Amino acid sequence: MTRELAALAKSTGLKWKRNALRKSFISYRVASIKNVNQVALECGNSAAMIFKNYREVVRESESAAWFSVFPAKIENVLAMVNG
Questions:
Q1: Cα atoms found within 13 Å of the Cα of residue 25, Cβ hemisphere only
Q2: What are the structural domain ranges in the chain?
Q3: Crossing angle of helices 60-67/20-33, nearest 10°?
Q4: 31-53 burial by CB neighbour count: b if 16+ within 10 A, else e?
Q5: CB under 8 Å to 39, separation ≥6 — which residues?
Q6: Beta-carbon count within 10 A of 16 CB
Q7: What number of CA atoms fall less than 13 Å from residue 48's CA on the CB side?
């Protein structure tokens, strides 16, 4: 997937930062649940590593907006449901 993202970024002139989606997920997840230890467990990091390399301070409202982004519904694709 990394090669595909890099190729897409290059073809559109977008400057893509390494691990950009991972860093964003961690920052917004911490803002959302306010539990760095839980996020560290989910991401396979330590809390210290998150504070050192990943975490940017974001508002809870920004986190809600970030996690609410979904692709448009496609009629011939079934939604996956837990349970």
A1: 9
A2: 2-67
A3: 120
A4: bbeeebeebbeeeebebeebeee
A5: 26, 29, 30, 33, 50
A6: 14
A7: 0
Give me the helices (H) in the chain, please: 2-12, 20-33, 36-43, 47-49, 60-67
The distance of Cα 65 from the centroid of its chain, to the nearest Å, equals 12
> CB-based contacts of 47: which residues, under 8 Å, 6+ apart?
36, 37, 40
Q: What are phi and psi of 56, to 5 degrees?
A: -115, 140
Q: Residue 30's pLDDT is what?
A: 94
**pLDDT tens for each residue of 38-75:** 999 999 999 999 999 887 888 999 999 999 988 777 78
